[in-house]
Amino acid sequence: MQTPTREKLVVIGNGMAGISTVEQILKLSDSFDITVFGSEPHPNYNRIMLSYVLEGSKTVDDIVLNDWNWYKDNRITLHTTTTVTYIDAVNKQVTTDNGMTEGYDKIIIATGSNPFILPIPGSDKEGVVGFRDISDCNQMLEASQKYNKAAVIGGGLLGLEAAKGLVNLGMDVTVVHLMDDIMERQLDQSASSMLQVELERQGIKFAMGKQTSELIGRNRVSGLRFSDGSILDAELVVMAVGIKPNIGLAKDSGMEVERGIVVDDYMRTSFEDVYSVGECTQHRGVCYGLVAPLFEQGHVLAKHMCGVDTLPYEGSIVATKLKISGVDVFSAGEFVERPEHTIIAARDEWKRTYKKVLLRDNVIVGAVLFGDVTESSNLQKLIKQQSEMTDDIYNSVMGTGCCGDGTKKQSSVETMSDDEIVCGCNGITKKTIVDVITDQGLTTVDEIKACTGATRSCGGCKPVVEQILQYVLGDGFKVASKQGICGCTSLDRDEVVAEIKTKGLTTTREVMNVLGWSNAEGCSKCRPAINYYLGMIYPESYEDEKESRFVNERMNANIQKDGTYTVVPRMYGGVTTPEDLKTIADVSLKYDVKVIKVTGGQRLDLIGVKKEDLPKVWEELDMPSGYAYAKSLRTVKTCVGSQFCRFGTQDSMAMGELLERKFERLDLPAKFKYAVNGCPRNCAEACTKDIGIVGNDGGWEIFIGGNGGIKPRIADSFCKVKTDEELIEICGAIMQYYRETGKYLERTSEWVERIGLEQIQSAILDNLDNRKELVNRIEIALQQVEDPWKKMLLDEKTRTALYEDHKSAIPVK
């Protein structure tokens, strides 16, 4: 049998639009030999995540969508740092800037767009950059290390993301905008003004209604001169005034172009067998600059090229979501009020939320949300479907209606089409999610994320993914989502805690016996969990069961693979004294410590201490335990703050020491880390800590749920406070709420996603009585704690059994 001839497909552009289309083609057909040309030296990456790279919360590797191996595994030839300069439609071949030629049967042009650089004097000076690719990011990162003042020209989505990133890098940033309202193409005046106030709180300055006439300076830019004659100092200028479709190749090749490359409803250009998708493309007179439309175009094109029946592409409902930490803004469809509109609006200055829905003849045609964007996915779908407003929709969107159990109604996913994109960042459709649930038996959002990539970027689609999961699994959803705390029981965390309280159970053995454990002795997973829950419920009366703890906690030190241990003394806020350093050095020499390691939490780790030497090392150090082995507060990382730093606005070292002294030694569901920064430069890395604190001129901002470990997560902005007293109170309430609702071994990053940021804020910020009660309960628990090293030194019997009796067996778990 003769093997069918494979068609030669050339993809011009290695960005999100082109490669997303290729991904869809690979799912539908194996009939193409694919060659990709990309002008950048990188594999396919998520361009909309560049703002996270700029602010330092992600690396370039973190935003790669398809790594080098993906191309190899799919037999795709990739030419990086190579630009196609001409398409010969007669001989069906392309030519590149390095002289290469490549034949084709079909072409997909996905050359994207270029940043628009204002044609003003000085725009070619050193220090003037766009914000479009990794190279731009790198230039901005390098500039932030050398210079202090930056200006971002353009108060749109991209400009604000660039500005916040530069503020996080410690620069003095001013956004220069020609109009009187920021993001005026996506937001109405109310939402725009609320957004500007919020961003000013975060350290961004604004020069509104300013037209830049010239960039001044010699070789490098030193400032901006405005049309009114005033000058703004700036050593870095970021142009973020818009984009223009990259149509140079199409124009030079003789293709029909207007503002973009002109295509029909199946993405066909004026050249036979040549197609175009993404920002370089003009469809029905519109060029789209956002990511969701390019995915929708790619789905239609992939099906058309593979001979699969598909509806034509008829345009997209454009939706915008701002990706700035601590700011939630959403806009879709029409947002400017006109006489024919019926307006539904609610503005809450105290909670800083704003909702507006626009109707035309009772049909939902647009929406703007600020502060609370939980209904964004639902509204986007309703606008796209041209749904009529109903009482149920009104109650759901405006937050006035509840189900019988008091919870808000969820939007239905039944009416979503299979091709509807759920995850706009990664182009994942409803059908893709449904298929992996049914074909692979997935039962959790995390499993879907790992399999498809949905929710892995901004996370805004998580509620819809969860609704699809519930819709597909039906009655099995709760069963599939519910897991016992271990294989010994079908009871989950909440059920175990409730049974302990209701039945007055007081020991681990009693819990396992009364609640019908299948294994009467329990296991290494449930015994430590029950021990923690009992201690959390009865802090004053419960006697800790050491035998139910992991070996590191029983030994008060981390065991190493060679059988030796590490000793990490407490250094409050990462600060120590010369005297303590000398003591550490003397003790390390005396007991033959192999290595002293500076930890990521600003501590010194004495590695290689023999088990029998541990009590003597603790005694001679005469320092508190740093709890590096425990499910408790490990470290409070600080910057030097206002005591020494020229940028510092708050005394981060003093606050870090205060918090560490107050909350040390308290048992928590998992290890816990703080960071306290004296200014928004974020040198202590608040974005990856369980509680991160950032100082500013007006007080402090609190972030929660960050994690820099095996499951990285950027912390969520929780609230802003003005006084140190309020900061300490809220931190205590957060920790106690986590203690009382967290699963054992569940990090706050997982806890925040499971419980929901809004619920945590409601329990602590909106309910002051509940906050006081949480603080009272954590104070009671703190009164029971004591230093474990000193306690062990005074307990001769236990000390002898654990450290001096070599015949005793310590099982390692």
UniProtKB/TrEMBL annotation:
Domain Nitrite/sulphite reductase 4Fe-4S span(s) in chain numbering: 630-769
Top-level taxonomic group: Bacteria
Recorded metabolic or biological pathway in which this protein acts: Nitrogen metabolism; nitrate reduction (assimilation)
Molecular-function annotations in GO: 2 iron, 2 sulfur cluster binding; 4 iron, 4 sulfur cluster binding; flavin adenine dinucleotide binding; heme binding; metal ion binding; NADP binding; nitrite reductase activity
Domain BFD-like [2Fe-2S]-binding residue range list: 421-470, 485-534
UniProt keyword Amino-acid biosynthesis present: no
Cofactor section: FAD; [4Fe-4S] cluster; siroheme; [2Fe-2S] cluster
FAD/NAD(P)-binding domain mapped to chain residues: 8-282
Domain NADH-rubredoxin oxidoreductase C-terminal positions: 319-386
NCBIfam families to which the protein is assigned, alphabetical: nitri_red_nirB (TIGR02374)
Family the entry assigns: Belongs to the nitrite and sulfite reductase 4Fe-4S domain family.
Protein name: Nitrite reductase large subunit
